[in-house]
Amino acid sequence: MDLKLRLADYFRTNADYFNVEIQLLQYRVQVIGLDSLVDLPQSIAMLQTQTTNMVDDSLSPDSLLKIIGQLVDPDLGAIVPDIIKGNLIVLEPLSGTCCAVLPISKVVTRSIGPAETENTLYGSSSSFLEDLNTNIGILRKHCTSANLKVETYKVGKSNPKAVLLIYVEDQVKPALIDNLRKKIEAGLDKDIQHLQQLEKILGSNPWTVVARFNATELPQNAAHSLQQGKVVLMIDRLPFAVIIPSLIWDMFCMKDDHNFPLPFMYLIRLLRILGALIATIIPGLYVALVSVNPEVLRLQLALSIAHSRQDVPYPAMVETLLLLVVLELILEASIRLPKSIGPTVTMVGGIILGQAAVAAKLVSNLLIIVLAGTTIASSTVVGFQNSVPIRVFKYLLIILSAIYGVLGLLAGIVLICAYIGNQSSMGVPYLSMPSLTQKDEPNG
Amino acid sequence: MMIIRTPFRWRMKLLTVSIILLPLLSGCWDNKDINHRALPVIMGISLTEHNQYKIFLDIPSTDDSNNITIVSGTGDTINEIIDHMSMNMESQVDLLHLKIVIVDKNFAQSGMQDVVSAFNRSRDISSKTLFAISEQPLEQFFSEMKAKTLNSGNVLYDFFEKNAGWNPQLADTRVWQMFRSINSYTHDVIVPLIRSGKTTNIECIGSAIIKNGKMTGQISPEETLVANAFYGKSAYGKLEVMDSATVQIISNKLTHKSWMKNDQAFLRSNLKLNVTILDSKGHPTEQEIKDKLEQLLTSRLEHLFKQTQQDEADILALGQYFRNDLTREQLSRWRSEYYPELDFELKVTTKIENRGNLKNL
């Protein structure tokens, strides 16, 4: 069968497949590609401009095609990947030669805009896109070091994707980069569609609660971590940079802080640490004080808490869990919902949490305050992925507090500390300071 | 065929089992929430004619009425009475928040060693609980308190609270100090003596001298202030100086010198007071005020000392300064032999730090 027919048969079910015949010099050639990726009229115009300007018009088809593109074997297996990648195939039917041409492609990426999931106060507000090349461009603008290295890997079998490994050579520890390189090379045949698959390739325990890497949409954050000696991974079509390793200080510090005067920077970071502590401890403390150890409270406070809990039918733990679940539902719903419906959820949630639950004597007044404080505090940490472990840890503390009171709370905190202390990401302990990832200063 | 379990699966199983067992082991269903506990603030103890305890509990209510409930019961031991009360109440009586124990004067005079030791050893009653003695019979005291404190449950508690209604004219004695006084050879305490007042809720009429858990005498509020100054707890106490001025104590400092000679104890103390003048009458000079003040304090303290020597109750804990000089056997006779014979001289030096709000005297 003719190659043209075979191609048409192969792409039978693809509506955007096209195959047109145009005149290049003295030859009639077939131009083949995918309409959705190739801007056809512009590309044809480009081809024709290229050929009409040629002085020597007695070229063989072979050498003509060699000039305008890259020769490929005229068989299905070689041509199809090129077409899918978005290249244009030019086929001269008489001689059977064909070549792949880099066409003028259609724009399928959005333009650079502000970040959607992270806010900056003073820093640059442009964010990463789905397109890898643009991302590298933005990153290079932010990190102007001559030692910035970008390594490319093609990862995946059925859905191959480009993965970039970016680091600053004189900052990063060689052990870390070697380790990463080895892991990626060993996992070249595994697909990467999401971060869990990336985790699998990097070989970390998938059941860990603490974030193994930080994902950021902001090029300034990525550039900052590169300067700190961390490694940035970028995956095609994921509009964020993955920063490895993730450390506990990433929860509390970000590049933007340095735009404040120094005292404020420290105060703000202190506030974030306080927020993380409040969010994990306060709900458990409430349960412990109300149901197991009321003697710790001052008398006046004990009486007013007892007053506010009058007629509440449930024990403190059930009460707290009940309201926490509602809060988590509201959080989850407001992420999912389109912006036009979002306010409805907020409003309805506000009614439940604000007054109705108390008026119905389901929960006590104080609990509303405790949980509202908790929710606000848990969002003060940097990065959404870092606020998730805090949300999880508080349930452990609530359960232990309900059973053993203040002692249980303390035991829970010790457990959490031990767990965090046990974590490491790519061989770097989670509790280490950012400077530890850096390469030692050379002597002299 | 043997099934080989990986260590990981083993661990997961062990973890699951222990998580399931955790609630079973803990007995957390026995925890009572705070709104199901009655939290008495004040406990009154008196003796009936049949030598039984009668207990009053003052429980602030937690509903909107803000009333206080007075519960009383009679029995042979305190725990028995409380248990009985708990049975008859809709919530569990929880003595964790007990702040004040008020005993009846008769009971105090007949000795309360058993009660104090029991309180100090009990796990639910804090050893920081205050002690007070009521001049009136407790029935009368509590019914008048209830009538007066319609809208606030913790008036009596605030009366003794350092950051609320406490004054240096009030003695401040805790259960552990009572316990110490029972078991120590050289340490006695004073306990506030109160009754329900005519215009105010409570009226303080001085302090009771407690020796070995037994009330032996009584001193006035002014003497209590001096004793508090001796303990170093007199800050911002006010003194009237014989028709000429009122001064306020800003700070005090006490130094001692003690020695034994011919089996007699000697003690020389120097009390340095920094005071400020609040008001004056008839244009005295600073020196006059100073002299009068020193004279007044010395005579008050001497009077206090003489009285306690008669009672053989060492409320100023002067015996502490002879612990190095006496053997334990001698110390056991401190109250009865050495203390009444103690040669004690107190020198009061005052410094008028500023005239306060007065432009001229």
Give your account of this protein's structure:
With 444 residues, chain A is an alpha+beta fold. Chain A is built from 14 helices and 12 strands. Chain A has a 5-stranded antiparallel sheet, with helices on both faces. In chain A, helix 9 runs antiparallel to helix 13, helix 11 (316-336) crosses helix 13 and helix 11 packs across helix 14. The model of chain A has no long low-confidence stretch (mean pLDDT 85). Chain B is an alpha/beta fold. Chain B has 11 helices and 14 strands. Chain B has helices spanning 7-26, 78-88, 105-110, 113-121, 138-148, 155-160, 175-183, 221-231, 286-311, 328-331, 334-341; strands spanning 37-38, 42-47, 53-60, 68-75, 92-93, 100-104, 130-134, 189-196, 202-211, 214-219, 238-241, 245-261, 264-280, 343-354. In chain B, helix 4 crosses helix 7 (175-183) and helix 8 (221-231) packs across helix 9 (286-311).
Question: What is the fold's blueprint, element by element?
Answer:
The complex is a heterodimer of chains A (about 450) and B (about 350).
Chain A: H1 3-10, E1 17-24, E2 27-34, H2 40-52, H3 61-68, E3 70-72, H4 76-85, E4 88-92, E5 97-101, H5 132-142, E6 148-155, E7 161-168, H6 174-186, H7 195-202, E8 214-216, H8 219-227, E9 231-235, E10 241-244, H9 262-292, H10 299-308, H11 316-336, H12 342-359, H13 365-378, H14 384-422, E11 424-425, E12 428-429
Antiparallel strand pairs in A: 1-2, 2-4, 3-5, 4-5, 6-7, 7-9, 8-10, 9-10, 11-12
Chain B: H1 7-26, E1 37-38, E2 42-47, E3 53-60, E4 68-75, H2 78-88, E5 92-93, E6 100-104, H3 105-110, H4 113-121, E7 130-134, H5 138-148, H6 155-160, H7 175-183, E8 189-196, E9 202-211, E10 214-219, H8 221-231, E11 238-241, E12 245-261, E13 264-280, H9 286-311, H10 328-331, H11 334-341, E14 343-354
Parallel strand pairs in B: 1-5, 2-6, 6-7, 7-8, 13-14
Antiparallel strand pairs in B: 2-3, 3-4, 8-9, 9-10, 11-12, 12-13
Helix pairs in contact in B: 4-7, 8-9
